[in-house]
Amino acid sequence: MVNKIQVKSILNKHKKRDDWFLDDYSVNPYSGCFFNCIYCYTRGSKYGENMTKTLSVKVNAPELLEKQLSRGAKKGEYGIIALSSSTEPYMPIEKKLKLTRRLLEIILKYRFPVEVATKSRLVLRDLDILREIDKNAVLPADLREKLKHGAIISFSISTLDKKLAKILEPGAPEPMERLETMKKCKEEGFFTGLNFIPVLPFLSDSEEMLEKTIRTAKEYGADFIFVGGLTLFGKGTTDSKTLYYKFLERHYPELVPKYKSLYRIFWAPSKEYQKELEEKSKRLCEKYGIKSGIVL
Ligand code: SF4
Q: Which CATH superfamily is domain 3-288 in?
């Protein structure tokens, strides 16, 4: 039985547009996530160790979105909506509930552009609505010349290794299934990309693995690829940092000291590591003719 909750607001307006995904807004139809990734930044005391147990459906999301977008459209406050930023919009329960689909219908009605970020092939069900959004959305004035699409569909992976992905993202579809789905979206004419986030230090960040992932992304139709490091938050028993270290101790104990020296007391790897990752991935993106950003 999934929890049902009423929320006060469903459309979150950001103080500043996201530098990478270019979204000005985000909409999260669910709270918690069935895919239950160990590294998920939304973890912590709010959702608990098993996010499938605390998964909630925001039952009044459609009526709130209708109100909020109708107001935004009247004022001409168009901006890209990220669907979603802190949950998966296409987890298995969506098949039955069709909540994300209803929200997309409202987004289409008010002509807002959308950036769907998913790990699931269920997104294919909604390509009919996404196609209409792609054609009819009103982009913010400063993006109109640079971005010709009202719908962007991106797929997230942390590794191409099926076994490792099963441990880290226990409820999510296999990485190759996500790539196959991206290919299908590309064949259907969508602007698509791969979010290679988080890249896992010492597990999916070698030159060879970066190259393999970027090359594969290109082969499977990605127009762009984001490459981003792993963040590890919190000290509580259900925080991502605690769970990730548990995973390392169990499966890769030899990597624990390496991670400790890379992260020290911080939530992100060292600046040098991040710079090197960025440089390496930009070079590989150029080599394979794939953009390292949506409008670059
Ligand atoms: S799919 Fe996304 S939102 Fe869901 S647990 Fe994984 S990282 Fe978090």
A: Aldolase class I (3.20.20.70)
> Which atom of ligand 1 is closest in space to residue 39's alpha carbon?
7
Distance 195 CA to ligand 1 centre (A): 12
Burial code (b: 16+ CB inside 10 Å, e: under 16) for 53-68 equals ebbebbeebbebbbeb
Question: Residue 142 pLDDT more than 90?
Answer: yes
User: Which has the closest alpha carbon to 100: 156, 34, 41, 146?
Assistant: 34
Of 177, 162, 51, give the one whose Cα is nearest residue 123.
177
Q: What is the arithmetic mean of pLDDT over 139-148? A: 93
| Selected residue with higher pLDDT from 237 and 79 | 79
pLDDT at 52: 66
Ligand 1 contact via 32 beta carbon (within 6 Å): no
